[in-house]
Amino acid sequence: MPETPPPAGASITREQVAHLADLARIDLSDAELDHLAPQLSVILESIASIQGVAGEDVPPTSHSVPLTNVFREDVVVPSLTPEEALSGAPEAEQQRFSVPRILGEEQ
Amino acid sequence: MNGDTSSTAARLSEELAAGRVTSVEVTQRHLDRIAEIDAPSDRLGVHAFLHVDAEGALEQAAASDARRATGTPLSPLDGVPIAVKDVLTTRGIPTTCGSKILEGWIPPYDATVVRRLREAGLPILGKTNMDEFAMGSSTEHSAYGPTRNPWDLERIPGGSGGGSAAAVAAFEAPFAIGTDTGGSIRQPGAVTGTVGVKPTYGGVSRYGLVALANSLDQAGPVTRTVLDAALLHEVIGGHDPLDSTSIDEPLPALVDAVRQGESGDLTGVRIGVVTELGGEGYQPGVLTRFQESVDLMVKAGAEVVEVSCPSFVHALATYYLILPAEASSNLAKFDAMRYGLRVVPDGDPSAEDVMRATRDAGFGDEVKRRIILGTYALSSGYYDAYYGQAQKVRTLITRDFEAAFALADVLVSPTAPTTAFKLGEKVDDPLAMYLNDLATIPANLSGVPGISVPSGLADEDGLPTGVQILAPAMADDRVYRVGAALETLLRHEWGGPLLDRIPSLNGGTA
After folding, report:
1. Residue A88: inside a domain
2. Across-strand partners of B271?
3. Of B339, B348, B394, the CB nearest to A61
């Protein structure tokens, strides 16, 4: 992705959408890219108006109700059993989530 | 009364307490009503439910009757059945969030809201339909087909919680749980002629609520009356140590506020009409009904002031940066490894190949659009211009609210800019769809509570409209007081509840 801020009213190209889908681990087909890219451009153009609305001096809000350092007593409480934790797994083996190989051939 | 499901939850609570009816009878009536009118949407059923748990609900109802028989009910609502939006986890009952990626998933734990319903003795009828992962304003983005609006089966019931609103409007459930991230309780309430409350952010636990946007999501009541909403809110609300954003303070007295409001007297209450939430883009019939509601409140003693919230014009853009940013992070957990769908491509695919294929097959268009948008907004180089900027504008919107609440006790606006539109009309036009939440989004960005109360039927199409009432954070009692007052005043004008005028379905009891 470019390191410089986009111009106001920026749109988004099909190639950018393909790259973003790749980052988001979604295997979009060509037909989906054709369909989604123009829609995303329209959305982005409409929300680009937000640039420059708030000045440098405005602090950001991440949560509307400001809470910091929420602690609780360090008390052990019952949790899910291994069977419960694995109950939704597509595949489980020896009380573990079983996953496809995680390394590529070149690794 | 046999077979009738039109009683409010408050009335059912009284009848159960008096022993005039059993929970098994009440629950069975609602299950019969569901069986009668909910059939899949392609056969003109309402399709408010994704899953009906008849057996579980009747078991819970029988247990409730046993408690009532020994004089040990768990709460005033013990035995009153309820429907739950499919975005809250329910132990032993499938939870899909309206998505194929979670098809058939049975959670091993209850959301805190669901646990509190069970602890108060409410039988759970089933799980209601919704836009996939709560992304939408029409319930058409459900992977399992849309819900239909009981006022006109060719129209949308609002969204994302169209299932909960339609279930309640169609008398399939006395009340329901919804969730509201940008209006998903209030907007469906407005277009189905029902009541919906978004509590103060942090007022109801989010534990077990499958997150769309953590900083915006809030569960709340979906009901036919303001009193029922308060009764339900008092059951589900309050501090929960399992949600670190939960407010560690007692809830205001909500049912008391409703009782006060039901007098219809608003003497001394300052009502702020927000300039930016009306006018252009709002359907004439919606504005007419809104103005009538304001006039009625003035007649009841309220003082009206016009307030300007200039940053609200940027609320939609702010929301569509913050929400996708949070959603794209949240939905990263659907990786085909621990729960949900796993699609394995041919050959010798890696875990990453499996993830890509699964997420492509399991997510619908709107979810993909928002994940990509969020990924974009959070990319280096764009972060400051978009996400960072949106967080700052969020501060400006909160400052607007603070200034407005210095002049008024509550703020009012139409809940949704239009009445229910036709199914299919906006489903592939994301921007047009997003505009439905124009008036509801600011409350989520600032965490303030809001209610939508039915305000009548628009002249041009005879479909329901709603009035939204907003109050400062933690002043949920104000939305209940003013909401109950407006409900009382309007019912006096109409000679009864708005839902008396809903067309009956399949010769139903409505």
Report:
1. no
2. B304, B410
3. B394
